[in-house]
Structures are given as C-alpha cells and as structure tokens.
Amino acid sequence: MTVWRQDRYGTAATVTSRAVPTPAPGPGEVLVRTEAVSINSGDIHLMQGSPRMVRLFFGIRRPRVRGRGMDLAGVVVAVGTGVDALAVGDRVVGAGTETLAEHVVVAASALTVLPDGVDPADAACLPVAGNTAVVALAGRDLAGSRVLVVGAGGGVGTLTVQLAAARGAEVWATCGARAEATLAGLGAAHTVDYRTVPVSDLPRDHFDLVVDIAGLTPLPMLRERLRAGGVVALVGGEGGAILGPIPRLVRSVFARRRGRRFRPVTATTKSAVTAELVDLLDRGILTPVIQRRVPLTDAAAALAHVEEGHTVGKVVVVA
Ligand SMILES: NC(=O)c1ccc[n+]([C@@H]2O[C@H](COP(=O)([O-])OP(=O)(O)OC[C@H]3O[C@@H](n4cnc5c(N)ncnc54)[C@H](OP(=O)(O)O)[C@@H]3O)[C@@H](O)[C@H]2O)c1
Q: InterPro entries from the xrefs (predicted)?
C-alpha cells in the first residue's frame, strides 16, 4: 500500500509516498481502507517540528512517527481480536496516526460509525477540528450570548462559528475577506475582515465569550472585548520559534481583570464527541467547508496548501 512519510522535519516537500506492506490490526484494533483525510494545522507542526519544543515529545532529530495525517474516514476491512463494536464493511470516522495512507490501523475505540449517506470527506473534517471547537465553546450556556471568534476562516473556526450559532449565540467572526460570505452563510451575524478592521475596533465590554484561534491579538485587547464574567478561550497561534504559544498562555494566567478571564484550550479527540458532531452533520446542522479535495496520490500538495496558512475551511485528501 501507499503511505506518505518523512525522514526529517521540514516543509511538505519532505513528505513523500512510499510503498509498504499493508499492516494487520492487533487486539482492539481495526484496519480501515482510507476514503478521506482532512489536514490539520497540527499536521503542519509535526511535519515541520515547529515550534522546536514539539521535538522534545515527537523526536529530537527526526519525527519518531514518520507518517503524517490525524483524521480519517473510511471502511473497516479487517478486525482484530476483542473488537465487538465494529465489523468488516462498517463506514467509520475518527482519529489515528499516519492516516495519509491507503490503509490505516486504528484503535476501534477511536472510531465512530457513519450513518448512510454521509460523505466521508465531510466526516473527515470533524475529529480534530470539531473536537477543538467543542472544547473552545464548552462550559457556557450560549443561548442569547454574544460570541466573538477571532480567526474564524479556517478548519477550527468554520466549525466553531456553526456550533456557536446552532447553540443560540450571536456570532461575530474575524477572518480574511475571502471567508466573509462563507461565514455569514454558516450563521455569523457579523463578519469582519481582519486586514482592515483590527480587533481593537470591535465593541468593548460586549462579548460573553471570545474564541481566539488566530492567536495574534494582545491579551488586554481581547479582554477589553468581554463583558464582566466573560471568558477568552485561547485556542491557537504559532507564537515563538522555540516555545510556541506557551509564554502567551502563561501570561494569560496573570491577565485576568475585573471578572474577565482567560481559558487555555487543549483539545483531545474523543470518539463520543465526534459521534455527536457526526449526528449534527447528518441532521444538516453542521456543514464542513471544504476548500479543496486533493487525491491521495498528491497528498504532499494538500500539506503544502495548509502549510501556507490561508485555507478557508478545510483541505481534504481523498482516495
Ligand atoms: N488548542 C488546541 O487544542 C488546538 C487544536 C487544533 C488547532 N489549534 C490551533 O488553532 C489554530 C487554527 O487551526 P486551523 O487548523 O483552523 O488553521 P487553518 O485552517 O490553517 O486556519 C487558516 C485561517 O486562518 C485565517 N487567519 C490567519 N491569520 C488571521 C488573523 N490574524 N485574523 C483572522 N484570521 C486569520 C486565515 O485567513 P487568511 O487566509 O485570510 O489569512 C485562514 O482562513 C492553529 O494555530 C492551531 O495550531 C489548537
């Protein structure tokens, strides 16, 4: 089978296709024939080994796991011992490792069965980005609230806007001009082109929740957008070359003022949450935005596109 791997950290050009034996599932695992894989900015961080701190956990000199790809949707083609919940032929979605491959071995517990009629490319947009959006919005009753999503045009942002709007929030979204119409169509009541309107021009003392996905706005400027009792959920941002967003997250602990505080978002992908997102997709409440579908034979081009940082919605690799 074909798998896309890299032997050293670097740009998308370091990720090339290899022919390897098709793996067999172990106990508790299944083998999935891949139909769709969405690319996440996390794939880019692992690919580049950036920020440098990433290398402490994922391999100092070269990536310990050489294949890229986290999300996947596909069909179960073999089942390991001890797996009762899945059978050969089931259509599934979930998160794994080295998913940019024709076949992937995944823990059965990491997968969710797809209802008939759900496009695997749509489903593959949900695990990592959707779980992140859910955690960013967690802990609040959003009905009648005002939510500002800073950096709403990408994979996490387009899902965050839809989930917040579906839960009854009035959503404001900052994004590139190209994404404004899309986000309005997804339920944003107000869209703001970040290149012409800085966050400091948005209303003060106005929002119950600010979801900061772009991670470039100074913390006090985000805090000033909140009403008393409001929270800034810190989701993204590249930060410095060595420690990435860590220094900003540390500063946020000391940046609370007058009942306005910050909450770092660290999302892990849970199949129960993915199942809820799939249900919303099936009911037409959630519509993933797919800017580009790229064949698996050209997976490095998909990584290169997301590496540029200007994706509207998602880039999905399809078999
Ligand atoms: N905390 C967690 O657990 C967690 C989990 C997943 C992701 N993340 C982080 O979340 C961030 C977003 O991830 P993603 O996969 O959604 O990225 P993405 O899809 O690559 O997002 C790209 C989008 O961001 C927009 N953008 C860039 N700078 C902006 C700014 N200053 N203001 C408004 N929009 C801006 C771009 O618009 P233009 O093209 O117009 O520039 C583009 O539409 C990343 O930093 C990622 O590391 C965190």
A: ADH-like_N (IPR013154), Chloroplast_QOR (IPR052733), ER (IPR020843), GroES-like_sf (IPR011032), NAD(P)-bd_dom_sf (IPR036291)
